[in-house]
Every structure is written in structure tokens, then in C-alpha cells.
Structure to design on (479 residues):
């Protein structure tokens, strides 16, 4: 069965969709004995990220085991994580 | 864990036993090729360098040539000079003497032009092949193996499948005491703070900041702002939220261990573990830099597909997606698209890559080797 999403590092608090996913879907990702299951609260397009656990305001969004930015809003598990609710610590190129 | 390789008089180890015919300058490149084609058992590496270099660029070209000619995969080397080039053969042979690498030199200008040079060169190369055949593989710990990690022709899957899987293989080799090198400095832009945090000491952290700042400054001097719109609107549409995320997708191919040293283009690391090389992202010239720095084998992840190989080392191709694998199967050694298909996981593909590295170290040919790919080129800026 095709994999729907991927967890890249066990320290990550987001996973990335391998295909377009729909609100309400239950998605499980696992890596090296770590497993996380969330119910998506929004549609998630291929290549986009969703939260595996709650991420508080100004807390790091972790992918590749590293902070890829800080949350600019409080994020719930299953929610889309992108430029609308997180921001690079190096500034954004498009604004 | 051990592999079966060659121990050289230079103190280096090798996983191939090549006799290399190497032109010191582009002008004698065809003569080198003609010699090699007449002598079975030799390889040639032709390039566009050897003349017109000054200052640091000259040092870089000489360092690269010395690194290739004294590589552990090279049993002996026949240098083919033209005669009047900037990179005089003595610049290379002085270093080969210090290292104890067997070599000989022929010259187009001194040995009777093209036919005389070919005649003399083929005799010498044939003797070298006989001598090289005496070398025997022996048990060598993986801690002496150096892996090059490269990505090229990337796609949206590169940072999700093949690069993290290669990173797992690199981590695995480093856990065995071995070494992995990744480069492509422009792809590290924006995550210097992340890389610096992984540096073994303050000097290495500073080196990381310095090479990334210099890559940016170089681009600015060329009139290009390479950080301005990162991630680009297209990247954002594709799901990338920050420059850190974009860069991490590239550099994850080196794994997640402590960064032990930053080296220059084609410079040998003094430490084991994970090494950053400050080098170009242009694929073949990057391969050359990694090999000249001592990499025995390169794993190359690709989303769009590339056939390139090397005259002196196995290059292992990992496809990021199964569509590419379907289209270019004869060129691909490992398909990381199996992670998307649900047939593999990051760990299983990481293990598959690691196993392929060890198999190639033991003598198995990579697809690029078996298909006869021998691409080679040296990176330099022409100042005169």
C-alpha cells in the first residue's frame, strides 16, 4: 500500500504528505520504533506538512530533527503547518 | 566491520586497482585518451584544466590533480604532459614522490609528438598494468572508508526519501568509525546556524559561517542574489515553509552527526566522521572534488535522473521516486521511491544504500561503472 506521509527524524513534530490528503483522514507515520497517529483537521497537499502534536506559539517546528522555524500561532495536532503559522528564523524571502 | 580492499604504499586504502593515464593539461588530453584506449586495464580522466591558472586557483587545480593521481583506487599513474603548460608535471610528481605513489611521465613536446608520445606511453602503461595486477585485496576496517554524499537533479521527493535515506547510510558508516563528506555550499544557505550548532568546536562553526557567507558574496559579485527569494514562491506552493527546511532537505544526505571539519575543494580531511567540503554544486566537478579529497565511493541521489560515473571510483545512484526508477532503471542502483510506494522505509532503504556501499567497496560494480560511465572535470575560475 502506498505510504501517505513520512516522518524523517524521530525528533520531528511534523510529518510531510506523500500525496494529497483529506480532512478527517487518520494518518500514521513511524520511524525507528517511534510511531505517531493523527486525525487531519485540514486538507493537506502533497509536499505539505501537518503537526503530529500540539506546537505552542513561538515553539520550534521540527523537521529533519532541527528547527525549521518558529510557530507564529498555536498549532494543534493534525493541522497544516506552513508559512501562515510558522516563520523562518532567517526571515522570509517573499515579504 | 571490514571490507576487502587494497593497501597502498602511500598509506591510503583503495577499493579499485586502476592504472590511470592522466593529462596534465587539456592540450595533451586526447593523447592520454589514445594511450589508454590502446592499453586494456587502464583508465583515463580527461579535463579542461592545466594552463592559465594563477594564485589560489592554480593551487586548487594542482591539489585536485595530486588528489586524483594519488587516490587509493589508483595503483599507479602515467602523466601525459604537453610540455609548456602552467601545471608542469613536476608540480604533481613532487607531491607523488612525497606520498610514495608510483608514476611515470611522458611529454608530447619531448617524446616525438603525438605518435612518439603514444608509443612510449603505451609501453609504460602496459608495464604498469602488469605491476598493478600483483596487488591483492585484504581485510580493511570500514573506519578507513570515505563516502562522498551528493545530490543532483533534485525533485520534491529528494529531501523526503533519497537524501534522508543516504543520511542514514552515512550515519551508519560514521558509527563504524568511517568518514562521509558532503559539499554543495550554495545548498547550505540559510541553515548555517543549524549546521554551526552541530560543529565539533568553535573553529568548525566559524568555518561553516565563513564558507556560506563567501558563497553568498560570490553570487552577489556576479550580480545574483541567491538568498533573496528563498524559499521561492514555487517552493512555498510545493510546501516548503522556510529556507532552513529547503537547505536541510539537501544537507540531510550527509546524515545527522557532528560536523568534524570544513575542507576546501579537493582538500583531504584530517579528521574522521562527518566533513563539509566547500565546493560547487555542479555534479561532475563536485564528484572530482570529493574523489580528490579521498572519497572511495560516491552515493548520488537524483530525482530527475543522471547517468554520470567516474573513471576511478564507483558512483552509486539512488532514485528519489519510482517514476524515475521506471524510466532509467539501468542507471539506478537503489530506488528510494519504494518508501513512497510503501514497500520500503527510510531505515530499510538507508540499510540498502549502506549495503551497496560495502558491496561496491568489496569490488561489485555500480551501474555507472558497468555502463562505462567515466565523466570527469575539474572546477576552476580562469583569471588570465
Amino acid at each position: 500500500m502506498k505510504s501517505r506521509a513520512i516522518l524523517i527524524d524521530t525528533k520531528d513534530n511534523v510529518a510531510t504528505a506523500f500525496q494529497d490528503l483529506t480532512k478527517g483522514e487518520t494518518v500514521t507515520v513511524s520511524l525507528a520504533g517511534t510511531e505517531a497517529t493523527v486525525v487531519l483537521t485540514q486538507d493537506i497537499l502533497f509536499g505539505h506538512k501537518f503537526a503530529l502534536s500540539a506546537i505552542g506559539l513561538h515553539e520550534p517546528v521540527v523537521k529533519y530533527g532541527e528547527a525549521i522555524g518558529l510557530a507564529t500561532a498555536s498549532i494543534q495536532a493534525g493541522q497544516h503547518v506552513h508559512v501562515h503559522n510558522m516563520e523562518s528564523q532567517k526571515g522570509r524571502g517573499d515579504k | 566491520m571490514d571490507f576487502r580492499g587494497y593497501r597502498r604504499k602511500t598509506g591510503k586504502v583503495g577499493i579499485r586497482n586502476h592504472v590511470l593515464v592522466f593529462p596534465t593539461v587539456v592540450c595533451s588530453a586526447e593523447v592520454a585518451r589514445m594511450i589508454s584506449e590502446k592499453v586494456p586495464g587502464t583508465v583515463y580522466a580527461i579535463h579542461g584544466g592545466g594552463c592559465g591558472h594563477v594564485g589560489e586557483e592554480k593551487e586548487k587545480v594542482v591539489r585536485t590533480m595530486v588528489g586524483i593521481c594519488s587516490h587509493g583506487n589508483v595503483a599507479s599513474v602515467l602523466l601525459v604532459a604537453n610540455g609548456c603548460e602552467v601545471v608542469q608535471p613536476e608540480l604533481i610528481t613532487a607531491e607523488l614522490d612525497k606520498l610514495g605513489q608510483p608514476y611515470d611521465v611522458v611529454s608530447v613536446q619531448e617524446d616525438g609528438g603525438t605518435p612518439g608520445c603514444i608509443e612510449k606511453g603505451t609501453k609504460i602503461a602496459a608495464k604498469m598494468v602488469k605491476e598493478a595486477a600483483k596487488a591483492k585485496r585484504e581485510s580493511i576496517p570500514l573506519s578507513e572508508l570515505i563516502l562522498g554524499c551528493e545530490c543532483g537533479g533534485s525533485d520534491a521527493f529528494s529531501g523526503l526519501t533519497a537524501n534522508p535515506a543516504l543520511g542514514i547510510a552515512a550515519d551508519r558508516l560514521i558509527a563504524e568509525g568511517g568518514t562521509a563528506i558532503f559539499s554543495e555550499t550554495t545548498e547550505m544557505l540559510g541553515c548555517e546556524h543549524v549546521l554551526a550548532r552541530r560543529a565539533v568546536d568553535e573553529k568548525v562553526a566559524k568555518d561553516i559561517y565563513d564558507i556560506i557567507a563567501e558563497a553568498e558574496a560570490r553570487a552577489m559579485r556576479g550580480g545574483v542574489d541567491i538568498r533573496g527569494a528563498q524559499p521561492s514562491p514555487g517552493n512555498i506552493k510545493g510546501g516548503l515553509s522556510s529556507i532552513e527546511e529547503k537547505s536541510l532537505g539537501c544537507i540531510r544526505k550527509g546524515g545527522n552527526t557532528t560536523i568534524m571539519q570544513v575542507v576546501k575543494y579537493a582538500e583531504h580531511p584530517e579528521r574522521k566522521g562527518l566533513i563539509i567540503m566547500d565546493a560547487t554544486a555542479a555534479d561532475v566537478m563536485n564528484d572530482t572534488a570529493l574523489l580528490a579529497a579521498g572519497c572511495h565511493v560516491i552515493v548520488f541521489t537524483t530525482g530527475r535522473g543522471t547517468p554520470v560515473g567516474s573513471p576511478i571510483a564507483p558512483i552509486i545512484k539512488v532514485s528519489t521516486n519510482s517514476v524515475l526508477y521506471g524510466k532509467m532503471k539501468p542507471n539506478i542502483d537503489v530506488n528510494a521511491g519504494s518508501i513512497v510506494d510503501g514497500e520500503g522505509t527510510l531505515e530499510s532503504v538507508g540499510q540498502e544504500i549502506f549495503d551497496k556501499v560495502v558491496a561496491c567497496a568489496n569490488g561489485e560494480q555500480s551501474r555507472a561503472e558497468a555502463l562505462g560511465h567515466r565523466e570527469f572535470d575539474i572546477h576552476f575560475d580562469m583569471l588570465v
